[in-house]
Amino acid sequence: MWGIVLFVLGGVAFWAAFEQRKRTKAFAERAVATQAIILRLETYMPGQEKNRSTPKERRTFPVFRFTDRDGQEREARSRTSYPFDKVTVGQTLDVLYDPDKPDDLRIGTETDNSLFYALIIVGLAVIALGVYGMAG
Fold first, then answer.
1. What pTM did the predictor assign?
2. Measured distance CA(94)–CA(70) in Å, rounded
3. What confidence tier does 85 reach under pLDDT thresholds 50, 70, 90?
4. Cα–chain-centroid distance for residue 27?
5. Residue 34 CA neighbour count, 13 Å, CB half
């Protein structure tokens, strides 16, 4: 029985990988590259309790200011956290943003597919365990 459950969970991970890949590809097709300056660093997500970790463990969510392709100044908060010691207020970075949703901003000039690959690997491993469980 557990083999079937694992097989299905592996399939769900595979499905999630391809959904993530589809969203990343759609973002990449719409994205506009620009430079942005870090205005401030926030150490917790909205609605969460403030970060109580030690400074060495702390991660931060940079808030950026950038000029969009229409010349309008925008502010956007990174949805991804970064090690506290890797980003600083006033630092200028290359970013990609979605012109239809300017608050969807990502650091770098290329989209990242690491989550896709991680989900594929996890999915394959769990499917293999499921097949082993069904065979044994």
1. 0.69
2. 18
3. confident
4. 12
5. 22
